[in-house]
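Weekly structure sync, notes
Attendees: PL (lead), two postdocs, one rotation student
Agenda item 3: pending single-chain targets
PL asked that the sequence for the first pending target be pasted directly into the notes so everyone works from the same version. It is reproduced below exactly as submitted, 168 residues in total.
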Amino acid sequence: MSLPNPAELLPQMADALTRHLNQRQISQPRFIGIRTGGVWVAQALLEALGRQDALGILDVSFYRDDFTQNGLHPQVQPSELPFEIEGQHLVLIDDVLMSGRTIRAALNELFDYGRPASVTLVCLLDLNARELPISPDVVGATLSLTADQRVKLTGPTPLTLDFQTLAH
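Predicted structure, written out during the meeting:
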């Protein structure tokens, strides 16, 4: 199985997101990327949309439910939200949706800042391995991997996807 090229997925995602926002009559969305891969995808998506909106950056490390098991990643940085959350229509962007736990953590953090009017979830890849009932509104591609496979996004330019195999 070969991985899709993000450069080919992004224009399709931009079109799908535009349709989604138009259908919901959302004219002033606020864009938020989940650090790190989600921020890269968000930047590329904003470029594909021809938008120069301020980009919020979310670091969900402290909100993850596996924080006590895995400890804190040494690269943790504070979230940067250059706009209000309360009452806003948010577009939350991540690179790879797997279990859904990162998105759950992101939603928990966002609600600590206020109650958004809506949250649209955009993911470059959906790995069809959810443990929580979370599904993207816009997705670049859906893949099913074996239990020992993972996908890693590298970037920010160019964005590339690579397979990784977990050690047994």
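Discussion points:
- The two ends are 21 Å apart (CA to CA).
- The first strand starts at residue 30 and ends at 34.
Action: rotation student to compare against the earlier draft before next sync.
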